[in-house]
What does this fold into?
Amino acid sequence: MSTIPSRSELSELALDTARRCGVDVGSLTGDVTASSPVNGLPVASLTWRDPAYVDEAVTRAGEAFRAWQRVPAPQRGALVKRWAELLTEHRDDLATLVSIEAGKITSEARGEIQEMIDICDFAVGLSRQLYGRTMPSERPGHRLMETWHPLGVVGVISAFNFPAAVWSWNTAIALVCGDPVVWKPSELTPLTSLACHAVLAQAIAEHGAPEALSQVILGGPEVGRALVDHDGVALLSATGSTRMGRAVGPRVAERFGRSLLELGGNNAAVVTGSADLDLAVRGIVFAAAGTAGQRCTTMRRVIAHTSVVDELTDRLAAAYDRLPVGNPLAAGTLVGPLIGGAAYDAMTGAVAAAVGDGGVLVAGGGRVHEELAPEAFYVRPAIVRTDRQTAVVARETFAPLLYVLPYDDFEAAIELNNAVPQGLSSSVFTSDLAEAELFLSAEGSDCGIANVNIGTSGAEIGGAFGGEKQTGGGRESGSDAWRAYMRRATNTINFSGELPLAQGVDFTV
Ligand code: NAD
It folds into this structure.
């Protein structure tokens, strides 16, 4: 499908687009190459920061914090409101960069920027709703209440596959909560991060807020580690693989910092005998093959009742055969490239392991467009039918590889859903109210996200986002996730003129 843009076409498009967002592209020089998964070729050269630079950035952010925490929250919200307007102006530009650097198709890339605008709207409203509670005191003439205060510098480490939105989920909420943000984006998406930062920097300048409220530091994992270890970072919000979270979590804990971990998923849909299969097929194909299988919430397992598993597998395989795979910037494409060769190797390795375990490859799996773009990695999304949830099925393979497993008994399906180390997203397709309710109950899915009659991916910002077990336990975005970005003080106010002690303690001298 369509041609793949040449190195110069893509590089010019990337740099022009970044310039329109406010990036000083003339100053982009250095010996680090930024490449695009679209053609696998370089788009820009740039310089990574030394880990020592993190200290400077966090110090500056600490100074910004001292000023910003005094600004009333609704005024902080006004900055985020302006940011949303600028994001709306630059929506297509930022989406183009997301497509170039993360390989997302245009509608998904625009969706990612829309998510940024949505979280800004949410945060603006939140800026007038950072509620604390009052509780009845057990003592006469006393008031007991809690107050929420700005927390401090927030460090954000983000993954390649949501190169813009994840930072904005953190940043919009952090800014209204009174916190500056120091961002270490994925090394694979530097132009997107510079452009995102430039748009926010404009809003900050117009607002007259401290410049250091938002900083971006390009660099590799060692820059991330410096941020993780810095005592000046009050909250470290890290999104990426479980491997990364395993390294980051204990280090933040060791210095008694706060961490918010958003790690890998291995998300399943249970398709019951009463499911509307038309709906299930559409929901599964988007969740499993969309974004070329590179969302944390990508559906990786379908657990289907034996009465429907054959028909469902056939219909999924037929739909997979029709999926247009190619240049993500071209109209009509539904599946873009993998991020790189390592992802391709992981996918082919997982298919081979699953087949070795007795699975059958029923769709896709092969590489395409190799002749057009030998450095890029386009694959046909794959389906493996397997009877057992083997070790490879229990692993997150970050590629469009879907395992289909049969079940007989609904409780066993729930057990299979839960019998993986990750706990991010899950769904059930059913017309049976009891099955739906059981799946959502305490005895049901153990994931942070549990859906009915929709797939596992494509969450809205209004809810808290995140998952359990090796997904890390963090929650960000909507609902009351803002509390992670503030500190709580409990206040007791005595207006009685006496000094009664709690629990009836007598300490009369
Ligand atoms: P990754 O773990 O390779 O990298 C993520 C970020 O962590 C990068 O910025 C990287 O430089 C940094 N990093 C790596 N090791 C580090 C260390 N020891 N200390 C500090 N920083 C370190 O992940 P990726 O390949 O970019 O993204 C894909 C993974 O992210 C998948 O596992 C996916 O499920 C997960 N993900 C999770 C969510 C979520 O919300 N749960 C969202 C998006 C992606």
Summary: The pocket of nicotinamide-adenine-dinucleotide is lined by residues 157-162, 184, 186-187, 220-221, 224-225, 228, 239-241, 244, 247-248, 262-265, 296, 396, 398, 424, 471 (CB under 6 Å). The mean pLDDT is 97.
